[in-house]
Specification:
single chain; 275 residues; alpha/beta; 12 helices
Length: 275
């Protein structure tokens, strides 16, 4: 038996049990080194299909494939030992039937080792969530602003601004929870609506641009670290990584141009490089 103590992985039941308790700390992760840094601080790491925009430079999440999600999911699982890791199902991989969703979710879970999957869950998705949950796939729903529906919806717009939309978002939340999702991401809704949904459903709500009235928050890590020039209004920037990286690389370039290298010539001997 190994002398090392094994870290216990947070499970879907642990997340479910946090309803109304200590807020859930969640962030996106797409690679192993970042997952390793985030892991001790987070309850849940999401391999979001936002990877298409954040890492691959796509304009939307529509071009993200199942293979991309699996590759990033495997990387995150190598870095995260404690947080629950959930992988997004990309556009086109779950909408046509519950069977299609189950087969692709099972593939994501068996090839990555992740603990859960997430789908964007309009009311139509309730049957699919039920089908997967009955077959032992832990599912997180995603309601309100659904990025995969942005083309059909006319862009990335906040939801619940009028009574019809409000009613629709509440319906999505109730259907998602009743169908068996163990948590629900709520994106882009005002505080009063987030509060109403959080009070109505029995599973934790995880907000993004949905105020502190939820049971937790998730952000795109690169947004809160200041990797991009622009960040959504609801994101607090905890760093300015773009500026700091620019300054570090400028210094590196200046050092190389003026031949400023580590002074210990030993580091360049083959013996040292080979270890
Ligand atoms: O893809 C993603 O990163 C997400 C979060 C924004 C919730 O779905």
């Amino acid at each position: 038996m190994s002398a090392q103590t094994q870290t216990r992985r947070i499970t879907a039941s642990d997340i479910r049990a946090r309803k109304g308790g200590e807020p859930l700390v969640c962030l996106t992760a797409y690679d192993a080194p970042m997952a390793r840094i985030l892991d001790p601080h987070c309850d849940l790491l999401l391999v979001g299909d936002s990877v298409g925009m954040v890492v691959h430079g796509l304009d939307s999440t529509i071009g993200v494939t199942l293979d991309m999600m699996i590759m990033h999911g495997q990387a995150v699982m190598r870095g995260a030992k404690r947080a629950l890791v959930a992988v997004d199902m990309p556009f086109g991989s779950y909408e046509s039937s519950p069977q299609q969703a189950f087969e692709n979710a099972a593939r994501i879970m068996s090839e990555t080792g992740c603990q859960a999957i997430k789908i964007e869950s309009g009311t139509y998705a309730a049957e699919t969530i039920d089908f997967m949950a009955q077959r032992s796939i832990p599912v997180i729903g995603h309601i309100g602003l659904r990025p995969q529906a942005a083309l059909a919806d006319g862009g990335f717009k906040a939801k619940g601004r009028n009574d019809i939309e409000r009613h629709r978002v509440i319906e999505e939340a109730v259907a998602t929870a009743q169908a068996g999702a163990f948590a629900i991401v709520i994106e882009g809704v005002a505080e009063d609506l987030a509060r109403e949904i959080t009070a109505q459903v029995k599973v934790p709500t995880i907000g993004i641009g949905a105020s502190a009235a939820c049971d937790g928050q998730i952000l795109v890590t690169q947004d809160m670290l200041g990797v991009f020039d622009w960040t959504p209004k609801f994101v607090k920037r905890y760093d300015n990584m773009a500026e700091r990286t620019d300054a570090a690389v400028a210094q590196y370039a200046a050092d190389v141009r003026s031949r400023v290298f580590p002074s210990d010539n030993e580091v360049y001997t083959l013996r040292r490089i080979d270890g």
